[in-house]
Amino acid sequence: MEMSPVDIVDACLARIEKLNQKLNTFITVLSDEAREHAKAAEAEIKAGKWRGTLHGVPVGVKDFYDTANVRTTAAFEPFKNRVPRHDAAAVAKLKDAGAIVIGKTNMHQLGMGTTGLESYFGPVKNPWNDTYVPGGSSSGSAAAVAAGMCYATLDTDAIGSCRLPAACCGVVGFKATFGAISSKGILEGEKADETILWLSHPGITTRSAEDTAIVLKALAESHEAASMSTQLRIGIADNFTADEEVTLAFKAAVETIRTFAHPLVRASAPFDMPPFGDLHAIEMDRKTIGDRAFKDIDILLLPTTTTTVLTVEQARAKPQALSAANTMFANYFGLPAVSVLCGFDTRGLPIGLQIVGKPWNEAAVLELARQYQVATDAGRKRPIP
Q1: How many CB atoms lie within 10 A of CB 347?
Q2: How is residue 70 annotated by DSSP?
Q3: H or E element at residue 367
Q4: How confident is the model at residue 225 (pLDDT cuts 50, 70, 90)?
Q5: Which strands form 337-344's sheet, in the order they lie side by side?
């Protein structure tokens, strides 16, 4: 079925109007602007002008990224009226590819938490069950995509803060190799901690790995990608931390992937990092990680979270309550990584499978994620009709 940009934007805005007050996913909704851009996109299509792979597609932008003449707050009270003059580099690329920015998504304030509960504009709610956390810091993005409010979001991931909420909300959360997507224009001009600058990666949230690949193509800077064979050497991590329900879901996912005819071997995730904030060897570690951890494998599999989704009560007043123990290594070593839905716990909350690749091997990471989603129909179930 074909739909015009106007129809698509109207449908997303209707979802936002219906659900945003309940889920608190957007800080700023650009209804009028989005409708005007949709009309322009439709006129361009009729005139035979095609702007790019995202022509007419409604996307959200995490409120970390500067947007010209639209407030960018990082969910932080001192920035509540901060209005930048220019778009962040990645935002500009989205627009160049034809995307329509429908709003700025809520987040854990300043990106400094994994629960999504702390924001000047109020906590984000998990669309599957609002008594559980949505994950953070890209909380509004994951909830918005899960609830059908937009097709993709532009996010950040510093210790897992795109992948963790993706796992909690049952969507696809991806970060590329460090440097693959420009981070210029994330709170441009504001003081930032050096550790966060080294660890933070632009991220993408969608409902499918295939959609993620399309958005990545629009955002990626020029670089030489790693070669990929049709048969991937997959390492099954044996040193992760996870509770029983997460472990069972992970093992089931591995058994599904075993049917793809890729060779599977046991492997260890490179959790042997310096303490948080110790950056003295990070550049060398990023240069050598491929030979050290991916010498005999192309892909590493492990759970995204260490536990099932936490309740709001469990996480209240604990900004880092949702552990990043299984995700942070990919930030330190600058590796491409994605979280995809791999099942549900006994309470009906999503569980995430994490797929990590060696540097510049985004194609392999997203291809295996795509194969897994096709085999399991992951992403078809939506939390709210």
Answers
A1: 13
A2: B
A3: helix 362-376
A4: low
A5: 26-29, 100-105, 58-62, 152-157, 201-206, 172-175, 337-344, 350-357, 299-303, 234-237, 264-267
Q: Please tell me the predicted confidence (pLDDT) of residue 112.
A: 96
Query: Has 208 been annotated as catalytic?
Result: no
DSSP for 141-166 reads: HHHHHHTTS-SEEEEEESSSTTHHHH
Contact 341, 352 (CB under 8 A): yes
Characterize the bridge pairing of strands 337-344 and 172-175: antiparallel
Catalytic residue at 161? Answer: yes
Span 235-250, pLDDT tens digits: 999 999 999 999 999 9
Instruction: Name residue, tokens 């000047």.
Output: 120
Give which of 160, 179, 280, 270 is closest to 221, Cα–Cα. 179
Q: Which residue is catalytic, options 62, 104, 125, 175? A: 62
Contact present, 178 and 102 (Cβ < 8 Å)? no
Q: How confident is the model at residue 383 (pLDDT cuts 50, 70, 90)?
A: confident
The predicted model scores a pTM of: 0.97
Q: 209-219 and 89-96 are packed helices; what angle lies between their axes, rounded to 10 degrees?
A: 110
**Which distant-in-sequence residues (6+ apart) come within 8 Å of 279 by Cβ?**
194, 195, 198
3-state SS assignment for residue 203: strand
Is residue 319 classed as helix, strand or coil in its secondary structure?
coil
Exactly one of 95, 119, 125, 137 is catalytic; name it: 137
The amino acid at 223: H
381 catalytic? Reply is no
Amino acid (one-letter) located at 249: A
| The one catalytic residue among 161, 200, 208, 323 | 161
Q: How confident is the model at residue 227 (pLDDT cuts 50, 70, 90)?
A: low
Q: What DSSP string runs through 92-153?
A: HHHHHTT-EEEEEE--SGGG--SSS---TT-----TT-TTB---SSSHHHHHHHHTTS-SEE
Token couple for 30: 């650009």
| 332, 313 Cβ separation under 8 angstroms | no
